[in-house]
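Please, does this match?
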Amino acid sequence: MFAVDPPPTEFAYFRALHDLLPEPFFHTQAFLVFFAAVAAVYWLIPRKWNLARVCWLVLASFHFYAAWSFELAFLVLATTVADYLLARWMDATDRKKRRLALMLTSVGMNLGILCYFKYKNFFLDSLNEALLKLGQPAAFHTLKVIVPFGISFYTFEAISYAVDVYRRTIKAERSLPHFLLFILFFPHLVAGPIVRAGDFLRQAHRPKRWNWLRVQAGVQFFLLGVFKKVAIADRLAMFCDPVLQEPDKYGSAAVWFAVLAYSVRIYADFSGYSDMAVGLAHLLGYRLTLNFHQPYLAVNVSDFWRRWHVSLSTWLRDYLYIPLGGNRGGAWATNRNLLLTMALGGLWHGAAWSYVIWGVLHGVFLILHRQFRGWTETKPMWAKVLESWPGTAARVAVTFGCVTFAWIFFRPDLAGSLAVLHRMFVHGSGLPLPLSNTSLLVTVGVVFVGMLLWRSGAFQWVWTRLHPTLAGAGYAVCLTASMLLAPPDGKGFIYFTF
């Protein structure tokens, strides 16, 4: 369990109110009390009063976001209302130029706010560094700006909504409370999954019935997410964080192990959050996108992106890659579009050149995969070898190695990433891992065995045939293991910074 200090505020009233609000994290006692109260009131409201239920969830979601910053919660609320009005006006006119202007206004507003909070200092710092390298004094002053939680996620949701209304893929939502819930729904507000308006708004308009099977699914997803986050991701942080922060103090072998731990930690951390979000939504009668499908069992990088952060990869495909031209302009244009899409996807993750490098690396991997796939299509013998069991295992290993290598740059500190890279490939002696190598390998092994069991369907086959008593015992064991394996000091969610 952990806490993050809220940003300072000048208003004593807001400071006092903050003490009454839950922390914006799912696995804290404060949040669980908050969610229990929200869910109890939600289900006590009669089913025929669906609008009242929606309004209650909107209030609860605003309350949840205000736990971190009351002022920024009003900013999210104001931009959401503006997006609602712009879409209504867009839907009310058939004049193409006016519709385009309204769509660009909505997209520009959201991108402008995102750039101000997330990228302004990044670009100013880059300009100052360029001036210093040219022998000129720094001419731009950076600002102390607090980045709102989840701004990248709800910005993408608002943009996709404006574009879909413009394309007439969906009609503009007429109910403001329903649209507010689409953006502010607290299970996905701060770190996704990125939801599409057409899917979520249909669910919001549909009155919900209490369903014990859905409750069971929600609890199962939530406990699985807690286990991933607390028992795996936070424990792996104990292996990798000290090493990645000061790689020069550790031996090359320790740095290699730390990079492995970091790779698995990112998966357990983000998929754990996503599972908790999906579980909480189920407990309120909503279905969110499953964001991960055993990504480290992918047989190539293209397959990896069909399994990793699915809501983001499909968003980038539909609203960036395809509008750029997709694969319609020949090999050179396709490779350009892949590289540009992944570079911008990297920049979306964080305002640092290291994230851009991470995105470019994935773009290069995707291009190389396309070239290799084209080559194998002319070599039937090689295609058969690659499709065999040893060939598939080799492809999974190579893909995991490429993805893990790219994760080295998935940190805001480019100099630190380069230091890690140098220590990995230039042998040096130093301290061993903070904890035993065996413990790390066992933890990583548990993750991969779990993915294999789920991929094969063995886990689902056994679980659906368990007696309810045994299933309940399984939930209890999962929760107990999470509490026992949790490190003394919890870690924040990695994707909360995006």
Notes: The chain has two domains: 12-205, 213-497. Residues 213-497 form one domain.
